[in-house]
Write a structure and sequence with these properties.
The complex is a heterodimer of chains A (264) and B (357). Chain A is 31% helix and 27% strand. Chain A has 264 residues and is an alpha/beta fold. Chain A has a domain at 12-99 and 173-263: Rossmann fold. In chain A, the strands form 3 sheets. A 6-stranded mixed sheet of chain A has the order 6-9-10-3-11-12, with helices on both faces. Chain A is globular and about 55 Å long. Residues 1-7 of chain A have low confidence and may be disordered. Chain B is mainly α and 357 residues long. Chain B has one domain (21-51, 59-356): ABC transporter involved in vitamin B12 uptake, BtuC (Orthogonal Bundle). Chain B has 13 helices and 4 strands. The longest helix of chain B has 29 residues, at 328-356. The radius of gyration of chain B is 22 Å and the shape is globular. Classes of the chains: A alpha/beta (264), B mainly alpha (357). The interface between A and B is large, with 42 and 39 residues.
Amino acid sequence: MSELRLHDMGDIVLETRDLTKHYGGVHALEGANFILRKGEHVAIMGDNGAGKSTFVRQITAVEQRTRGEVVFDGRAVHFAGPLEAREAGIETVFQNLALADDLDVPSNLFLGREKVLFNLGPFSILDRKAMREATMRGLEKTGVKIPNILNTIRNMSGGQRQCVAIARTAAFHSKLTIMDEPTAALGVQETAQVENIIRTLKKQGEPLILISHNMRQVFDLMDRIVVFRRGRICANLNVAETNPEDVVAYITGAKTGAEYADVA
Amino acid sequence: MAHTTHGIGGLTYDPAKKARPPELNVFVALVLIVVAFEAIGRLFLGESFLFNTRDNVDAIFNWPRLNIIILQVSIVGIIAVGVTQVILTGGIDLSSGSVVGATAMIAMSFAQTALVNGNPNPKAIFGDWAMDLPVIVPVLVGLGCGLAAGLVNGVFIAYTRIPPFIATLGMMVFARGLSRWWSNGNPISFPTEGYAAIGKGMMPVLIFVLLAVLFHLILTYTVYGKHTYAIGSNEDAARMSGIKVNRHKVLVYSIAGMLAAIAAVVLSSKNLTAQAGMGVMYELDAIAMAVIGGISLKGGRGSILGTVLGALIFGVIISGFTFVKLDAYYQEMVKGVIIVGAVVLDQWRQRRSSERT
C-alpha cells in the first residue's frame, strides 16, 4: 500500500480537497481527496453510480461542486463552466462523445474556441486553414489515423470518432487529459488504437485520468488506481503493488484501504 | 493508391467517394420539374414553359414567366432565409407569417403620406407628426418589431426550455392579434414614394438574393454559422464545448424575426398597403421551402443555397400549375401535398443516413 504525501506540492498537477457533490438529498460524491502528479496516469475505478463521473464533472466544471477545493496547476480554481476548464488546460473526453455529427474534424476539434481571422463578435471570420493545419498536427502527434479530416463525423466509425475526441487534447497542448470510459463502445482494433494514443501521451509525459471498467486496460496502461465506492474514495493503489482480485475486492466493498477506514 | 489529399498515416482517401452535396439532388429535382412542365407544354398545350415562342419578342427565354417565378417566391424566400437558420439549430419558427402581418401594419403606419391627391390621407393612423417621415423611420420601426418578436421567441425557447413549436405558436397567435388590433382591422395605405420604392418592380428579388448570399457566407465562414450547425447537430456537445447555446439561440431567433420584418417591409411596399391578414401561411411556405431545399428538420444539415433552390422549386411549381391552367384551389391542395411530401422525404433521408452509420 502506498501512502500519499498530501503536502508535497512540487510536482502536483491536480489536487482535490474534500470535493463533494450533493444532488438534493443524494450524496453522489463525498469528501474526495485526490492527487495527480506530473506525467502520472491514474485510473479511476468503481461500480456504476460510485461517483466516478460525478468526480470528473466537478473538476471540469460541467457541474458546480457543493463543497471542497480544486487545486490545478498550482492554484485554487473555481471554473464557471467547461470552457474555462478547457482554457485552463483540462481536456476531457466524455463518455457520451461530445462531438457534433454534422461537422468535420477541424470544426469539432475547435468547437467553442474557433481560430478567427477577424474578430467581429459572433460574426468573426473563421480561419479554416489554420484550424485544418492544427488538426493535422494534432492527429499526427497522437498517431490517430483518419482518412479524411474534412469528412463529417457522421460518416466515421466509432473508433475514429473516439480518436477525434481524444485528438483534441493533443491539438491544444492540454496540461491534463481526462477520459471517461473512452473504449466502452469500441471494438478490439479500435480499442487498441485508443490505447496506443494513451501510451503516446504517457511517453510525452502528459498526465491523464482514465475512468475505466476494463481491468486489463488499467493494469496495462496506468500507474495508479483510485477506487470509488458509494460516492467516496476507498482505495489508492499502485498498479505495481496490487492485483486485479484485490481491486475487485475494493470495488465491491470486501476491502477498504487502511487510510480510508473511516469512510467504509 | 488513390489520392491522399487529406489522408494521414498511410490510410488512403478517395475524394471521388465523397458524398454528393444534398444541394445537387435538389438542383436535379428542380431541373426535372422544369423539364416536366416544358414537356407537358409542348405536348398538350403547344406552348413552351420557359422559352420564348412569340415572334414579336426577341428573346430566347420567356422572361416574363421567369421573372414571375422568382418574384412570387422572393418575399417568402426572405423569411425562409431566417427560418432555415432556426431549423438548422434544431428549432422551428411558426411565428414568421404573423410577424410579417404585425410588422407590415406597424411599419406602414410610419410610412404614410399626409396628402393623397390633394386630400388628407383617408387611412391615416397617426396625426401629422407621423406623416411623410424619411423612409429610414418605417424601416427601422419594422426591424425593431421583428427584432422584438424574435427576441421574445428566443428568450422563451432558450431560458424557459419550452419547445420552439409552442413558443413560436404563441407568438404566431399573438402577432396576428396585434396586427388586427393595431388599426381595428382596417388596412393602412398610401405610403410615401420613398417607402413604395423598396418593393417596386424586381426589388424584392434583389433584396432576397442579397440576403441569401449574405447569410450563406455568414453560415459558411463565420463562428456564428459553425455554432448554428453545432447546436443543431448535438446541443449537449455544443454546450460541453463551451458554446453559449442559450445566447446563440436568442441571436438566431432574433435574426429570423428581423428577416421576417424585412419581408414585411418589402411586401407592404410592393402592395402599397398593409392589411391585418398579410403573411397568413407564409411561415409554412417558408418551412416548406427549407425542407424541399434539403434542410433537415432535426437540425444540423442543409444550407441557404438549398433553401434558395427549394424556393425556386416552389415558384416553378406554382407558375407551372398556372401554365397548365390548373385551378387555384387545386394549387393550394397540391401545395399541401408538397409540404407533407417534403417532410416525408426528410424523414426518409434521415433514416437512410442513420442506417448507413
